[in-house]
Amino acid sequence: MSNSAKTTWKIHKFTSMVLVPFVIYLMLKIISISKLSYEQIIDELSSTWAILYILIFTVLGLFHMRLGVFEIMEDYVHDKTLKKILKIFVSVFILGILTLVCLSLLLILIS
């Protein structure tokens, strides 16, 4: 295993360990806000901590996903041109998701 592969593996494992408490908290939060009214949910989600939590969770989750997809492409896509195109497509897709999350949070803050 090369140094690059070891580093990628360590980063992937680290992000997965960091995401576990985020997912547990998210599941508990979803259960707790499911009984609230729309206005109460907006109030819950518009707090600074909730927005910070959502941003960190989204960035870490998307970074973790990108690492995993790129590793799969390294193993199974052998055509260099196709691999480049797929990496660009995945990166644009992830940036699109991140943009939508940021815009959604901005709308929550504004309302």
UniProtKB/TrEMBL annotation:
Pathway: Carbohydrate metabolism; tricarboxylic acid cycle
InterPro entries listed in its UniProt record: SQR/QFR_C/D, Succ_DH_anchor, SuccDH_FuR_B_TM-su
Cofactor dependency: heme
Transmembrane segments: 12-31, 51-73, 85-110
Subcellular location: Membrane
Tagged with keyword Iron: yes
Topology term for the membrane: Multi-pass membrane protein
GO cellular component terms, A-Z: membrane
BP GO terms, sorted: tricarboxylic acid cycle
The keyword Plastid is annotated on this UniProt entry: no
Coiled-coil region list: none
Sorted UniProt keywords: Electron transport, Heme, Iron, Membrane, Metal-binding, Transmembrane, Transmembrane helix, Transport, Tricarboxylic acid cycle
Gene3D superfamilies in alphabetical order: Fumarate reductase/succinate dehydrogenase, transmembrane subunit
GO molecular function: heme binding; metal ion binding
Subcellular location, principal: membrane
A Pfam family this chain is assigned to: Sdh_cyt
Entries under NCBIfam families matching the protein: succ_dehyd_anc
Function: Membrane-anchoring subunit of succinate dehydrogenase (SDH).
Protein name in UniProt: Succinate dehydrogenase hydrophobic membrane anchor subunit
